[in-house]
Amino acid sequence: MIEPYTDVIRPFLLQYEAERTHAWALGAASIAGSLRPARWLVDRVCGFEDSSLEVDLCGMSLPNPIGLAAGYDKSGTAIEGLSALGFGHLEIGSVSIDASEGNPAPRLFRLPEDRAVVVHYGLQNDGAAIVQERLAGRRTSAVVGTNIVKTNRGIDASPETADAIVDEYVRAVKVLAGVSDYLTLNLSCPNTEDGRDFFADPAHTRQLMEALKGEAIGCPVFLKVSPLGGDEAADGLLEAVNEASFVSGFIHNLSPGIEAKVSGDTRGMVGALAGRPVSGQMNECLRRLYVRMDRRRYSILSAGGVATAQDAYDRIRLGASSVQLLTALVYEGPCVVRRIKEGMCELLKRDGFSNVAEAVGVGEE
Ligand SMILES: Cc1cc2nc3c(=O)[nH]c(=O)nc-3n(C[C@H](O)[C@H](O)[C@H](O)COP(=O)(O)O)c2cc1C
């Protein structure tokens, strides 16, 4: 039987440049979200809920543990349409206090044989004020988090002081906290000069935590951190945020460059590898952090290479409270969310769990 996305739509889209098809998909989601019949249709095709999938994430009630990772809807232009796909939460952004054009194109590349993409967008977004308006006007009850980052002003911009960088985060938090269900502070953009290494120094993380301590944020805060640095970095991170009681958990970001082994031809590609090849690295990061962290205080959202129910279930068993995906949408299409949810229900049942929470971290015991 013909599978509409993988047999028809995907081969069509693969003929065109990756950034262009990303824009088309986002445009389609935006239009679908604004039309009630289209939303109804998407819901009929993609909808699937089951009480065993419900998750309490730091006080937020999620219908399921499958989230959309940051970077798909960078400026919150398609929230309603994307929520109709059945995600348990959506993370929009990264959003910076000022709008940014990001890096020069080409800045998104596909490696279809590896089910991977190489991304070098460089934090293109419409800026905090515009995104705040969109979030305030959203018409969906879906849990929507906003991922916040420092503005990318390009490689020719003069270097900024630590105080100025920290101040940008604080200002963006002030603008976006009131309209977000949760915030993620992106401390590790692999694709900008100043985003890459600044927070590798735990002193800078501590400085940001200090600066935010006095803010009435009012929603859970996650930190999106570098996957590099091994045990030492994980220990340094936990120590740096120990006193910052507003921090609820962590997500691991991509590494800069194309470190993992891929079979596709990467000549001419710059940026960070996402998708299936990063899965092993993300499992390792998850395991390392889960065994170290205070599990009563922190939760982990795990992203990177999640494309099947088994992938998602494995992350939960390793200690993630929820997962996020992006690249799987490119290769498996919008119904991937429903398929993962259906498969997860079966896996939970098979192993005798009545809900997701019971399975969190059991693979580590
Ligand atoms: C096209 C694209 C754009 C992204 N943009 C962002 C971003 O702006 N901010 C961020 O924190 N992560 C960004 N990411 C990283 C994703 O949020 C996620 O961590 C990563 O892609 C791993 O998940 P995946 O393998 O399912 O794609 C981006 C990833 C991709 C592929």
Description:
The chain has 365 residues and is of the alpha/beta class. 40% of the residues lie in helices and 16% in strands. It has helices spanning 4-13, 18-34, 36-46, 79-83, 128-136, 162-176, 193-197, 202-213, 230-241, 279-292, 309-318, 327-332, 336-350, 356-359; strands at residues 55-57, 60-62, 66-68, 89-95, 108-111, 116-119, 143-148, 182-186, 221-225, 247-252, 272-275, 299-303, 322-325. The strands form 3 sheets. It has an 8-stranded parallel β-barrel with strand order 3-4-7-8-9-10-12-13, surrounded by 4 helices. Strands 5-6-11 form a 3-stranded antiparallel β-sheet. It has a two-stranded antiparallel ribbon with strand order 1-2. Helix 6 links the parallel strand 7 and strand 8 (182-186). The chain starts with a helix and ends in a 6-residue tail after the last helix. The chain binds flavin mononucleotide (FMN). Flavin mononucleotide is lined by residues 69-71, 74, 93-94, 108, 117, 119, 121, 123, 147, 186, 224, 253-254, 274-275, 278, 303-306, 325-328.
Structural class: alpha/beta
Could you spell the SSE succession in H and E letters? HHHEEEHEEEHEHEHHEHEEHEHEHHH
CA distance, first residue to last residue = 42 Å
What small molecules does the structure contain?
A: flavin mononucleotide
Number of domains: 1
CATH architecture: Alpha-Beta Barrel
At the fourth level of CATH, the homologous superfamily is Aldolase class I
Instruction: Assign a percent range to the helix content.
Output: 25-40%
DSSP strand tally: 13
CATH class: Alpha Beta
Number of helices: 14
Strand content: 15-25%
- How are the strands of the biggest sheet laid out side by side? 3-4-7-8-9-10-12-13
- CATH fold-level name: TIM Barrel
Q: Radius of gyration, rounded?
A: 19 Å
What best-fitting shape do the alpha-carbon axes yield? globular
Query: What does the main sheet amount to?
Result: 8 strands, parallel, barrel
Low-confidence stretches: none
Average the pLDDT over all residues and give the rounded result. Answer: 94
